[in-house]
Amino acid sequence: MWSALALYVPTMSGDSIKDSNDKPFSFTNICTYVPITLDLEELNYDIWRELFQACCVGFGVNTHLKDASPTIPYEEWLKLDSLVKLWIFGSIHKSLVQMVVKLGMTTHDLWKSLENLFRDNKDVRAMQLDHDLRSIEIDDLYVSDYYYKIKVLSYLLSNIDQAVPEKNLVMYMVNGFGDKFDQVASIIRHQNPIPKFLQARSMLLLEETRLVRSRSFCCNAPFLVRI
């Protein structure tokens, strides 16, 4: 019985193995699967890593990220390893290429170099971004631009595992108003619970519109001549 069942155990033929190894060569544009560029300024390593690993798993070459030891005939392994390296080069900023590339490195070496580079910069960048966020001021910015600036800083912090609570974002936003929106700032500070970040933005946009209309009315009002 067991010998009969053994006839039905699937095995990979030489052609099947070859087809499996050829699969990664079926596309040339890594941006199709990893639509972001790894950049130190963007601090987008975790997102990039997740997308790139998913791509490698899908094409059966994830072992090249984890280990530098050939698991198939060396020439075939070298071709695949070189291909995955090209994928990495094609999805990182050119400044990073100059920082991490060394002669003769494998995909695994390159992968670890990128990881170490971003991990080493993580704490320093977190402190810098946190300071920028806490000290942000609206100055002459429009509310929409001010909101966007805060969101970018918050996004960068979340990329390095330093997510900012929404309540804190609202307070940082309010603290940067100065005298420009003092009335709205007072309302937001005394609301319980504190409004959501988007709600606070909407309140500011309404106040900004009111102030613009008020200034426009004053400028266009007719002069009154006293006789």
From TrEMBL:
It holds the Pfam family Retrotran_gag_2. It comes from the Eukaryota. PANTHER family: COPIA-LIKE POLYPROTEIN_RETROTRANSPOSON, PTHR47481. This is Uncharacterized protein. It comes from Lactuca virosa.
